[in-house]
Structures are given as structure tokens and as C-alpha cells.
Amino acid sequence: xxxxxxxxxxxxxxxxxxxxxxxxxxxxxxxxxxxxxxxxxxxxxxxxxxxxxxxxxxxxxxxxxxxxxxxxxxxxxxxxxxxxxxxx
Length: 88
Fold this sequence. Notes:
Elements: H1 2-9, H2 13-18, H3 23-29, E1 33-34, E2 48-55, E3 58-65, E4 72-80
Antiparallel strand pairs: 1-2, 2-3, 3-4
């Protein structure tokens, strides 16, 4: 998880004013899984999308909203990893 924290702290002030983390930066630097839908449909597929990151016993969902330029980080959710693993 340290690499995620460092990644977000390194966002430039100009980027932070416009978009804290553009999706292109996240896509290139953070290993993740594309999600079919966001938890509780927030945001819905017309407004954005979510990505799942597994780290130890935790799962992190990163929600991005579509903007005029490129998708931008909107929110981050934390959950138990088991909630996102396939079960028999």
C-alpha cells in the first residue's frame, strides 16, 4: 500500500487543482482489476467507473468520474479482500 500512498502524494499541485489523479496516471502506475460495476452503482456507468486494487487483507476501490479531458479520481473505498474474491 505504500506505493499507492506515495503515488498520490507525488501528484503535482497543478494536477491537484484540476484533478487529484488522472486515470492515465493510475492506469500506468497501479496494478488493478477493472470492475464491471462500482459498489452501490456509485458512480453509475454513465458517469464513471471503478478499479479494484488488492493489498494484503484489504481491497481498495478507486472510483473515477468522466471529465472533459480524461477520467479523474473521485473517491476511494476500502473493503475486506474476501468481499471481492470468488467463493465456491
